[in-house]
């Protein structure tokens, strides 16, 4: 049992450290020599990189942050596929995926390398959802794209997608671990956007093409 717990802790720690890789901060530092936390919204996410550094840099950050989420879930799945079931009870798999995913999301927004600052966890959450269930991820992405095409506001699109996750999870992956993940992760993403919500309500939130 002790060994099993150590393995579980290792997978969860790996997910947190993976999520903590400060992609946006590193890209902005390399390309412009700036600390992106001192510009725009102060976030290290792709949206602030887009406004501060440019489209190519933002796309790079978006894809890498999604990849972090994909790897966080895939590492647990691959562990069980290649013999993990002989070490840990197979019933642990979904709970480990859910917990590792939450820690990856937390790591992205509270990076140990940036004194516990970071992004708003939307991109890494999308990577996680795509790996949990491709239809779940694509459905969430669809909501994001539709809202973005109408509003031109990235933060509103991210919030709408976070709300949609809970509905889609009940329809596509209605198991306790995943539902718990959806509720906590979506709530956390929305809380991380609370300053954006204030600006949306006051009509001051920048749209695509505008500066923060």
TrEMBL record:
The keyword Protein biosynthesis does not apply. GO terms for molecular function: acyl-phosphate glycerol-3-phosphate acyltransferase activity. SMART domains: G3P_acyltransf (SM01207). The keyword Membrane applies. It catalyses: an acyl phosphate + sn-glycerol 3-phosphate = a 1-acyl-sn-glycero-3-phosphate + phosphate. Its main location: membrane. Probably interacts with PlsX. This is Glycerol-3-phosphate acyltransferase. The lineage of its organism: Bacteria, Bacillati, Cyanobacteriota, Cyanophyceae, Oscillatoriophycideae. The gene is plsY.
């Amino acid at each position: 049992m002790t060994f099993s717990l150590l393995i579980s802790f290792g997978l969860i720690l790996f997910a947190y450290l993976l999520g903590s890789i400060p992609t946006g901060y590193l890209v902005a530092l390399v390309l412009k020599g700036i600390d992106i936390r001192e510009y725009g919204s102060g976030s290290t996410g792709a949206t602030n990189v887009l406004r501060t550094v440019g489209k190519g840099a933002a796309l790079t950050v978006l894809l890498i942050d999604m990849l972090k989420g994909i790897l966080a879930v895939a590492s647990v799945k691959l562990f069980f596929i290649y013999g993990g079931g002989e070490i840990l009870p197979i019933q642990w798999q979904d709970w480990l995926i859910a917990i590792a995913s939450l820690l990856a999301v937390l790591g992205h927004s509270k990076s140990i390398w940036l004194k516990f600052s970071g992004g708003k966890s939307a991109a890494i959450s999308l990577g996680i959802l795509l790996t949990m269930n491709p239809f779940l991820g694509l459905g969430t992405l669809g909501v994001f794209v539709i809202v973005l095409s109408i509003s031109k506001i990235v933060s509103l699109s991210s919030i709408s997608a976070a709300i949609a996750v809970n509905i889609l999870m009940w329809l596509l992956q209605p198991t306790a671990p995943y539902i718990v993940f959806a509720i906590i992760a979506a709530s956390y993403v929305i809380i991380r956007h609370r300053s954006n919500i204030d600006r949306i309500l006051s009509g001051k939130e920048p749209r695509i093409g505008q500066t923060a």
